[in-house]
Amino acid sequence: MVTVEQVRAVALSLPQAYEALVRDRVKFRVGRIVFATLSRDETVLGFGFPEPERESMVATRPEVFLLPPASDMRYSWLCARMAALEPEETAELLVGAWELCVPKTVAAEFSSGRGAAGPRPGSGRIGP
């Protein structure tokens, strides 16, 4: 089981990431792009995830993963039950979601352990 505090610690450790409260939901962003969010009751974690792979994740581990609501299916997004996630897997999912919305150079610097580059130019949207 992963806790809100563990999710927050990982998400906020990523370069350029910050937390926002939007309509009573915790969201983690880079610039204006949301890369992860918690359900209002904090039992489900939504995060950026490659669209071609999400159906197979849900099919292979339905006890953990679920598709986002129909209104969010247009985004590269997947959801997971926090009670079924382990901290290590959660960290991998959050880093992967974050990598979808930062410049490739920032992700590469983070992966190599050098830290973050300057502010993110422009903005896009991968999730709710």
TrEMBL record:
It holds the Pfam family YjbR. It comes from the Bacteria. InterPro entries: YjbR-like_sf, YjbR/MT2646/Rv2570-like. This is YjbR protein. It comes from Motilibacter peucedani. The lineage of its organism: Bacteria, Bacillati, Actinomycetota, Actinomycetes, Motilibacterales.
